[in-house]
Specification:
heterotrimer; A alpha/beta (about 550); B mainly alpha (about 300); C mainly alpha (about 300); B: about 300 residues; mainly alpha; about 0% strand; C: about 300 residues; two-stranded antiparallel ribbon; 2 strands
């Protein structure tokens, strides 16, 4: 029997106090990690994975949290029983952690250099000039350009990816043995995500780090893990070597998770020809946001869209794909005329949206509807489901007479996979996926021709995303809807969209039918988007699975 | 058609349950309970007091002139002592409650409605109207309220309506700014955008979607502000520019007693103490309410009586 | 950063200007300015003569022009109750109030920061409950009543402190004590609330994860961030200190600008009222600029607008 594992969590049970009593965040959770290996804790939101990690670092506030039972052993020694000074010494020196959102995890009023140097001085390793020198080295190692000057910058002056690099630097500065990474790339663009994961792997090799990575992203997990632990509802449901868990999951929940992986195999033939007059014609659409008037400083403006043009035909599904800042959401806002265009036209059945008067606009709004990104905030929390769905009938008096509303709401709810009695309930009583279904029902209430889905599935858990997309596909077949599906995640629209528009920095980079785009991307950027999805670790041969 | 777990989270709890929960958490905190009880008492005095004990405020009783408190010689009504004319202080304090609270309530109501309304407009409109309202607010806010009140009362003459007007004007900026900030935040929320996408008119957006989100904050501020207005009115009346005799509030009672400090300190003491206890109770309760209404903080109230580890 | 401070100063300036215009029109509101300047029992003829003498029967715009010119020369006319130029009288009284207010504010702020921070490190604990009750009581207390009770207790009963006037250091104790009550109470609450919010922030978790000592986390990482909203509130409070000064100076006979204003109002000396109002407005205007500068220094996000 080999030596004790580097870190072992045994039977950890943590409760949290809330306004309605207490709930159990983790229930008898046990896992361990060996030297130099990468353990991934996989689970959806609310599964208790972050709580387990926080417990290792002693970061759980008690109250409202309470560690009911369990042990955490580092090299065989129980760290929960350690005297406070020794425990504090472990943090940063032997075990370190990086978090999901680097901006809020860096102190906004101190320079990055100061915060880095603090790691050294807090453990008495170095201070003053020496600490500063070593901090510059760290910045260099994690790939921050011009580190000497940037030491004196503040966190808000860096980009998201750079901030995460800085956090990684702070974590490995003292050469710890274990690095805990709590959803480190969730808030980052796909291209930046790939870079961060590469950095982590490089540092792991250089330092002999053991990594405990927490994520809900299946592809990231497959890319990083040696072993995987799957969590659900505070309990561990499955564990094992990464490849096995992925290719042959044993537990029902794990199987459900794995089925949500987008199919990299041949796309199903959606050979529908969409000819005929276009429903929507966008020509040279441009939008510039004025940030400050320039009266007391430099005039600042932001070009969100630059000369964008495309066409949407009846019954067609157009995917618009881009990373943050690409302008894709601005397109949605302009199409619904929630903002005015700086120049360019958007013709709906030949009439320019931006020139419509109030009456025409009202009629237009019946025909083109939107499903928003965040199911939690896109519905008024004080309105019940019935009022939410029937709101458009209140506004457009002529769609449906009042006595028939109840019946129609019930029909719509069933159409999206819910039940009629849900109409009396309120948004907070539903899960994210269910709320998005309600949002779809709301959009369908006035019989639109076009539905714009602005990152409609991005805020949902992986297993739910595919369900919603298949619901949308089903509705399309039944009702003949046209979609504009906006997303940052290219692979998920492979089986859904007819054509795809790739956007970057406000411009259209490439446009093509789906299969042609995936097989023969013309632009490097498109290629990068297709390949940036992390590949499983066991396919190390580097074969591109396209 | 994919099937999906249709299990929803907790059923919507009925209002009765929520009220019981508020009460349950309230009594766990002895200070908040005391404050609540005291306020109920004061409000009862304000509403019903004058019916029971009102005639005693004018009836002079020369045998009780400048009588010291805590003796029951002249009867229970004189337990707090009497003033130079022999009038029962207890009675005067109870009746004073009505004027003090009444003026404060009127002023708070005015500033809530006007400030809230203007704040809605300022927050919702994207043009010059909003800016104009904010500049005017800045002018009123940047000046000490007491000074403003003094100057205005000086020019217009002290009277109860003027007093209420002045008190309301000095508090309007608070409601206005808060409402505007909230409206600005709510306006950008997705459900407002969603309603716009459905074709909702401005009126519908404001009254159906935005206002209901803003009103609870307004009410909370109103409760906190009430205490401040009571203090402001007391100061003004104490300085002689507030309510004029023969009417009186607690503040003016303190002023009347100031001349007799050396030999009849109780004439000033009791009304001032009432002001302190009333505003303190209001502040304690609004502090409690702030913790309760924040779901992330509510657990602290559960802890209130648990033993510390 | 300077653009920020400049913009805020212009806003303050507009506010002051607005106030001055307001004062002008208030005085003309009753139609008969002599009514405000002269004693209540003056005759019609006297008022008529007064108005003619001071040009109050000229068209409004001419009066306004004259008013502005006088303002620029800091000339408010004679304080009738003192027979001296109003501005002179006001400028004499102002430093007295300034001394009182500055000491009271400094003490309140320092005490509040210490008490509030300590209370926030162990919320719900004994110190916290005590501190909360005391600070709420301070914020709720009617200052005029506390002053009276203090005089009763310390001067009349115990004979320890003088009842009024200036002179010895003993004279300062009660006025400053009473003036401090409300700012201390409010600021402690704000510091505590702000600190509690800051201590649950994500970057505090990072500091803990780095292994930083607890005291350093609270007083270096936390305090600097917690102070930002406190500075704003302190700025608002400083203006309301003038409110407190009026009451305190009246009761303790302190020869400051608050007492001067009340005297002027009671004696219907409108020139003096105008002078005191202007001085106070300018002081607050300067204070606002200082507060904005302090805020900009403390918060780098304002100093370095996002790159």
């Amino acid at each position: 029997m080999s030596a004790a594992p580097l870190l072992a969590v045994e039977n950890l049970t943590v409760d949290f106090l809330s306004g309605d009593g207490s709930f159990r965040a983790t229930d008898g959770v046990s896992f361990h990690v060996e030297e130099g290996e990468t353990l991934v804790i996989l689970g959806e939101s609310g599964s208790g994975k972050s709580v387990s990690a926080s417990a290792i670092m002693g970061l759980i506030d008690t109250p409202p949290g309470e560690i009911v039972s369990g042990r955490i052993r580092y090299r065989g020694e129980d760290i929960m029983d350690m005297p406070a000074e020794r425990r504090r010494d472990l943090n940063g020196r032997r075990i370190a952690i990086i978090f999901q959102d680097p901006l809020s995890h860096l102190n906004p009023v101190y320079t990055v250099g100061w915060q880095l140097a603090e790691v050294f001085s807090a453990h008495g390793i170095a201070s003053g000039e020496e600490a500063r020198r070593r901090s510059v080295d760290i910045l260099q190692r994690v790939g921050i350009p011009d580190p000497e000057a940037r030491m004196d910058w503040y966190p808000h002056q860096f980009s998201g990816g750079q901030r995460q690099r800085i956090m990684i630097g702070m974590a490995i500065a003292l050469g710890p043995e274990i690095l805990i990474a709590d959803e480190p790339t969730t808030a980052l663009d796909v291209s930046v995500q790939a870079q961060i994961l590469e950095l982590l792997k490089k540092l792991q090799k250089e330092e002999g780090l053991a990594i405990i990575m927490i994520t809900h992203d299946l592809e990231v997990a497959a890319n990083m893990a040696d072993r995987i632990v799957v969590m659900n509802g505070g309990k561990i449901v499955e564990e094992g070597a990464a490849r096995e868990v992925f290719t042959a999951p044993k537990h029902a929940y794990t199987q459900k998770l794995m089925s949500a992986l987008p199919d990299h195999a041949e796309a199903s033939a959606r050979q529908e020809n969409h000819d005929g007059a276009p429903l929507l014609e966008v020509r040279n659409l441009t939008k510039i946001y004025q940030l400050s008037s320039g009266l007391f400083g430099k005039k600042r403006s932001l070009q969100a869209l630059d000369d964008v043009s495309f066409v949407l035909r009846r019954g067609e599904t157009l995917g618009i794909v881009g990373e943050s800042g690409s302008g894709k959401s601005t397109v949605a806002r302009l199409l619904l005329r929630l903002a005015e265009a700086t120049s360019g036209t958007a013709l709906y059945r030949g009439r320019n949206i931006f020139e419509m008067d109030r009456r025409e606009l009202l009629a237009f709004r019946r025909r083109v509807q939107m499903v928003f990104q965040d199911p939690y905030s896109s519905m008024n929390p004080r309105m019940d489901i019935f009022s939410i769905i029937s709101e458009s009938w209140c506004i457009h008096g002529d769609i449906l007479e009042k006595p028939r509303w109840k019946e129609r709401v019930a029909e719509l709810l069933e159409l999206v996979g819910l039940r009629p009695e849900h109409a009396q309930r309120f948004p907070h009583q539903f899960s994210g996926g269910q709320r998005q279904r309600i949002a779809i029902a709301r959009a369908l209430a006035c019989d639109p021709e076009v539905v714009v889905c602005d990152e409609a599935v991005s805020a949902l858990d992986v297993s739910i995303q595919m369900q919603i997309i298949s619901l949308l596909a089903d509705l399309r077949d039944r009702l003949g809807l046209a979609y504009i599906f906006i997303t940052h995640d290219l692979p998920i629209v492979r089986n859904f969209a007819d054509r795809i528009l790739v956007m970057k920095a406000g411009r259209v980079v490439e446009e093509n039918t789906t299969e042609k785009l995936f097989r023969n991307p013309r632009e490097d950027y498109t290629r990068m988007l297709i390949q940036a999805a992390p590949k499983p670790k066991w396919d190390e041969a580097g074969v591109m699975v396209v | 058609m994919t099937t999906l777990s249709l299990h929803t989270s907790e059923v919507e709890k009925p209002t009765g349950y929520r009220l019981r929960r508020i009460f349950r958490l309230l009594v766990r905190d002895p200070l908040a309970t005391l404050a609540f009880a005291f306020l109920v008492l004061v409000i009862l005095c304000a509403i019903a007091g004058p019916f029971f004990i009102g005639d005693l405020i004018e009836k002079p009783n020369f045998r009780a002139r400048n009588m010291a408190p805590f003796s029951l010689e002249q009867g229970f009504a004189y337990i707090l002592g009497a003033d130079t004319l022999g009038r029962s202080l207890l009675a005067r304090v109870v009746v004073g409650a009505r004027n003090t609270l009444g003026i404060a309530a009127a002023a708070v109501l005015c500033s809530l409605v006007v400030g809230g309304g203007l704040g809605l407009i300022a927050g919702y409109s994207r043009g010059t109207l909003g800016n104009l309202i904010m500049r005017a607010t800045d002018i009123v806010m940047s000046f000490p309220s007491l000074l403003l009140a003094l100057v205005v009362l000086f020019s217009l003459g002290p009277s109860v309506p003027n007093l209420i007007l002045v008190l309301a004007i000095t508090r309007i900026p608070i409601y206005l700014r808060t409402t505007r900030a909230e409206v600005l935040e709510v306006r950008e929320r997705m459900f407002v955008n969603a309603a716009m996408a459905l074709g909702a008119s401005h009126a519908r957006l404001i009254f159906r979607h935005i206002a209901p989100m803003v009103i609870p904050t307004l009410l909370t501020i109103g409760a906190i502000d009430f205490a401040t207005v009571v203090l402001a009115e007391s100061s003004l009346s104490f300085l002689g520019l507030g309510i004029q005799s023969p009417q009186f509030t607690w503040g003016s009672m303190v002023a009347t007693g100031r001349g007799y400090l050396a030999n009849a300190w109780w004439v000033s003491f009791w009304p001032g103490l009432m002001i302190l206890l009333t505003t303190l109770s209001l502040n304690i309760l609004s502090n409690w309410w702030r913790i309760y209404s924040d779901p992330h903080q509510r657990w602290r109230l559960e802890l209130a009586r648990r033993s510390r580890k | 950063m300077f653009a920020y401070v400049f913009k805020r100063s212009v806003q303050s300036l507009v506010a002051v200007a607005g106030l001055l215009v307001l004062v002008f029109f208030l005085s003309r509101l009753t139609g008969d300015p002599a009514y405000l300047y002269l004693p209540l029992d003056s005759t019609e003829a006297q008022r008529q003569a007064f108005n003619e003498l001071h040009g109050f029967d000229d068209p409004l715009y001419i009066q306004f022009g004259r008013y502005l010119m006088d303002l620029l020369h800091f000339d408010f006319g004679t304080a009738l109750s003192r027979n001296r130029p109003a501005m002179e009288v006001a400028l004499e009284a102002f430093p007295e109030t300034l001394k009182l207010a500055a000491i009271a504010m400094t003490l309140s702020l320092s005490l509040a920061i210490v008490v509030g921070s300590l209370a926030a490190t162990r919320p719900g604990g004994i110190f916290d409950r005590l501190a909360t009750t005391v600070s709420l009581a301070g914020a709720s207390a009617p200052d005029f009543w506390v002053a009276i009770v203090a005089i009763l207790f310390f001067s009349v009963s115990l004979g320890l402190l003088p009842t009024s006037g200036t002179g010895t250091p003993l004279h300062w104790i009660m006025p400053i004590g009473v003036l401090m009550l409300r700012p201390f109470g409010l600021l402690t609450q704000v510091v505590r609330g702000s600190m509690m919010g800051v201590l649950t922030s994500p970057y505090i978790k990072t500091a803990q994860a780095k292994g930083v000592r607890h005291s350093k986390i609270v007083f270096v990482h936390g305090l600097r961030n917690a102070l930002l909203p406190v500075i704003t509130v302190a700025g608002d409070l400083a203006a309301s200190l003038v409110n407190g000064a009026v009451v305190v100076e009246t009761i303790f006979g302190w020869p400051g600008i608050g007492k001067l204003m009340i005297d002027a109002i009671v004696r219907r000396d409108f020139a003096l009222v105008q002078a005191t109002v202007l001085i106070t407005a300018i002081a607050i205007f300067v204070l606002n600029i200082v507060i904005d500068l302090v805020y900009a220094v403390l918060d780098p996000r304002i100093r370095h607008q996002t790159a």
